[in-house]
Amino acid sequence: MNVPMQVLNSLKPGWKWAVQTARLCCGIPDYDAYVRHLRNHHPDREVPDYKAFFRERQAARYRGGGGRCC
Fold first, then answer.
1. pTM of the entire structure?
2. Is residue 48 left, alpha or beta, with left meaning phi > 0 and alpha meaning psi from -120 to 50?
3. Which InterPro entries does this chain map to (predicted)?
């Protein structure tokens, strides 16, 4: 099936929203939002790569600790 690129491009925002929603439902915050937060509120901290971010968020979720710094 050949789908025109215009159709695919029009679906991208909805797809990104669906993926973000699914991640939030599973307890995984948005990495891009996390990076923006670190840069705006904690410029002295090093920004972890996605793998480290994911591991830390998963650990925080399952150990019952809070996931918020502010």
1. 0.56
2. beta
3. Sel_put
